[in-house]
Amino acid sequence: MKILIPPSEGKAKVKSTNTIFSDTNFKFKKHVNQVVRLLELIDDEDLRSVYGTSQGKAMGFHRQNQDIFNSPCASAIERYTGVVYEHIDWTSLSERAKKYMEKNVFIFSGLFGLLKPMTQIPDYKLKMNVLSLQHHWNPILTEALQDENPIIDLLPQVHRKAYNPNKKNVILVDFLIINKGKKTAAGHFGKAVKGEFIRYMAENNIISIDEFSGFEYDGFKWDGASFIKEES
User: What does the alpha-carbon distance between residue 133 and residue 110 come to, in Å, rounded to a whole number?
Assistant: First the structure.
């Protein structure tokens, strides 16, 4: 089983190791270099739209991304913050649960493609939905996942475009809210339950979709296809 999860836009200023990214054995390093080369083609006036920040901050993020091969690393699971990762709460997981996550969890990243929790990465900022990065990563990640079975896809729609799901081995899991009979994506409110669900899977060594029904959080329950919360 492989579980696909998103990264977080926020990154923690964790203590880095002495290892710089160029010295790692990261599988997709060649493809990361292609993204960095693409970044070098961006005009300064376009940086604000790429990074979604002020010009000054955008230039800082841009320089940081361009220099990642010379930057010190920390594990991805410690690097990422945000609601999903707060609720996974990596540091409080049992060693067994951490091993489960390292074995089964893949994190999709606009800059790095596919990461495991303990993959060593530098600090960076780059969304998947800019510079056509979904199209850059799509054939690479589709190939990387083609022999995995089953795949539990907990990705938001923007990250799902970065690979071609195989209907035979991919289970798309969504978090939905029903209000007055209408289903809508839980959005930001679904991030906490998503993090709790990932934690539940790790702590309980979940290896089958049949075991999803044992999870419930904040009113979200498994209905056989999605996690649903009904609001009055």
Answer: 6
47-83 in b/e form (b: 16+ CB < 10 A) is: beebbeeeeeebeebbeebeebeebebbbbbbbbebb
Residue type, 73: C
Q: Residue 107 corresponds to which tokens in the numbers above?
A: 């994190």
Tell me the whole-structure pTM to 2 decimals. Answer: 0.94
Q: Residues 48, 53, 54, 55: what is their CA dihedral angle, to the nearest 10 degrees?
A: -40
CA–CA distance, 125 with 71 (Å, rounded to integer): 13
Q: Could you tell me the CA-to-CA distances from 13 to 23, 103, 109 in Å, in that order?
A: 21, 25, 18
**Span 59-107, pLDDT tens digits:** 999 999 999 999 999 999 999 999 999 999 999 999 999 999 999 999 9
CA 54 and chain centroid, separation = 25
Query: Which residue from 154, 149, 177, 148 is spatially nearest to 87, judged by alpha carbons?
Result: 154
